[in-house]
Structure prediction request, 159 residues.
Amino acid sequence: MVEDPLATADCLQLTREVGFDHLLQGGKPYATSCPLPFQADSVKTARDVTRRTLRGWGLQDLSDDAALVVSELVTNAVRYAMYAATGHREITLLLMRVAPHVLLAVADPSDEMPRPKEPDFVSENGRGLYIVETYSQCWGWDRLARGGKAVWALFRADS
Prediction:
C-alpha cells in the first residue's frame, strides 16, 4: 500500500533518472550493494547484509520485513536466472536510502520479467512475489542497460 504516492513516485523517478546500472556499481554514501553468487546460501548473506545496513541507518524496525522480502527476491534470482544466456554471472543486492524510503533491489542476468502467480498456500513455492507485494509499499522491475533486470521493492522508513 502506497501511503504517499508523490514521495514514492519521486523515489522511483530518481532510480530511473540515475539508473540501476549506475547504482549497482556501489560506492554511494546512501546505498549499499553486494555481489552474490548463484548459490542457495546467498539468501542468508543477503538477509545479513540487509539487516546490518538497516541497523547502520537506524532503521532496525524495518529489518524483519525487509529481510523477508530480500530473501524472496534473491531466491527467485537464484532459481530462475541461474541459466540466463549472458556473460554476467552474478546477482547483485542493492539497498538505497532515499528518505523517507528504502529501496531494495536484486539484479540478475535474466531478461525474463517476473510473473506473480496466484498464491497456492498448500504448495511449497509460488508465493514469493505475493510476499514481496504484501510486505512492501510497492514493487516492480526495470531492465538493465547491460542486460538482465533489477527487481525492486520499496519500503516506507519512518525513523
In short: The radius of gyration is 15 Å.
